[in-house]
Amino acid sequence: MKILTTLGVMALFIGCDSTKTATTSTSASSTTTTVETKLNEEVKTIDFVTADEIKEIVSFLASDELDGRDTGSEGIEVAASYIETKFKSYGLKPYFDTYRDNFEIGGLSAYNVIGYLEGTDPKLKNEFIVIGAHYDHIGTAKDVNGDTIANGANDNAAGTSGVLSLAKYFSEKKTNKRSIIFTTFTAEEKGLLGSKHLAERLKESDINLYTMINIEMIGVPFVGRDYEAFITGYELSNLAEKMNDYAGEKLIGASDVAKKYGLFKRSDNYAFYEAFKVPSHTVSSCDLTNFDFYHHVDDEVDKLNYPFMARLINKLAPVLEQMANAPTQDIKMNE
Question: Which of 28, 66, 253, 293 is deepest in the core (most CB within 10 A)?
């Protein structure tokens, strides 16, 4: 493991409204149509985060200096501090006593990093949405041309950049009626231990969880599919249907590959489903058919498509906003 000097860490930190058309209408029906058209246009054209901003986050987290972000390592401590600093800068509050949800794994210190944005509605703020992604990776992998650092750019600095971008979006708007917990999990690579710890802790506190959205491996687009991303466990709830309704397009689809390999149970959504039995799914644009570097040292920053990532996150933001503000719980488990 490389030793991160204070100077080196500081160097890493340092490195690092849609147009509306006015329409005049003389009838109630045409007015309604115009409003719906505007809403759909705004959903499709929102542009709150850029490809460069996404790349900056991924480049920090997936840099060689962080040594693959293995749980308990010095590199993941730097990553956690970076995420915590971001949450603070957005004005998010800790959900617990601090931003860190601490636990131990075999004598190693481990910590999820959590930011909290309380809902604005007196009643709906008692309902919670969790938006998460794991920020750990495996540390090292098989040597390729002298490189053993498994940087984990797609898995899952990419998803972490999505959570951070969405946290910034919601914290700037401050219009979410439901409360939102933004969390980055550790120890996903050791058996989903970070998400299991948090899900059980939240269950013990008896929070009213509406839904959990996990973001995993969104660094590359699909080719030849009619959707931008898929959700794991597609058939278990109406989440995909509602997300597409909110988006005004087919944003989310199903992956036969994900179903074949049981990916619903292989990421951090699963612990929340187990604990709460509410819609808890992973959003991803990679089912391993379109990315050759899973747990490989070549899962590097230069392998990702940042314009695609920015486009996907920009589309997810207003979808999740409608989810947070819907007057009733529209997303439900299928019978």
Answer: 66
